[in-house]
User: Fold this.
Amino acid sequence: MNPHKLLVQICLSLIVVFSSAEICVSKQPFAIVTDERLSALRKTPELSGQLVRRLSRGRKVAIRSTKTTPQGVVFLLVNVTTRTHGWIQREAVVSPSRPGDDQRLLDLINTSDGFDRIARARIFLDHFPHSSLRPQVLLLLSTTAEEHAAKLSRDAAKRLNNTTSNAPEFTYFMNYTGLDRYNRQRVKFVFDKATKRFHYDGAAWRELVRRYPKSPEAATARSHLTQLALISR
Assistant:
């Protein structure tokens, strides 16, 4: 056979093999890493097992099987990629297909501080679209973001105090690097030029009012949106 045709056939075969592997992984139940303090991926289902790697928060894995140690610690055998797999402690992840995991993640969000609360709330909102707990999480995310706006305002003012340029001052604030990690979580801020202060843009409050108008959280959201409207004038 022509060497060139042989190489093409080999490449096509490899594409089929890897595509099949990806399809196989995608059909398995999946979970998302939410607690990176426990997210060590190990070769064996034991706390002393050799470390393969540490998985970052938000990483999605495919669940293959479970095993409980004599000490009662539950491990999941997971695929991280088609080439990487290992065992991870059950409490490090949540799965939309597992009943009660939305409540477990909400409990973790409630005990989280700072930016961790926002990042974990975003995981909840992305992966539990039909949970009855969404109004609570939307309010937690939005109120936490507004609380962070005050510190972001102070930090940005200090960093930009001696800025001299032809660019408008407010553009420096809106380009402040401290906003970047919030932006990656789709949490955005508006800037009040008069007070030189950031405010949460209200996206989660608006979703609360639109999708859950009769929830207790919606009343709080309406109050915040009223205040935001006065700032935005």
Q: What stands out?
A: Residues 14-25 have pLDDT under 50 and may be disordered. The chain has two domains: 26-94, 132-232. The chain has eight helices and nine strands. Residues 132-232 form one domain.
